[in-house]
Amino acid sequence: MPTAVPAPVPAADDRCPCLSGSVFAECCGPLLAGARDAPTAVQLMRSRYTAFAVGAAEYLRSTWHPDTRPGALELESELRWYRLEIVDTERGGPFDRDGIVEFRARYRADGERGVLHERSRFTREGRRWLYVDGDA
């Protein structure tokens, strides 16, 4: 069976892979392009999911807190991410210093389906949200 590859980066008017209901150009697109920072922990979580879905490893590294960021990041090419569900949030708003986002991310790998269920921790440094770590 051939190995799956990341989905192509969506066109500006395509539905955003994070399933927010917005088009890519109004949701995760500007974040992945570095045009602006995520205003909330949830939006950072959505953009990081989209980065996994389209294979944007550099964006993932740049939004990972330096204290917990791995030295190298290689995305698993056999995973195909196809659905994100935000389960719960705590804090993480524009005026908070930290936040938690619980989510389920569904994927396919080698013909099998799976779910990553994680409770992720985020911190805000200055005006920028960063992913710290999570409990799967």
TrEMBL record:
SUPFAM superfamilies: NTF2-like (SSF54427). It holds the Pfam family SEC-C. It comes from the Bacteria. Residues 40-134 form the YchJ-like middle NTF2-like domain. Belongs to the UPF0225 family. This is UPF0225 protein DCE93_06225. It comes from Agromyces badenianii.
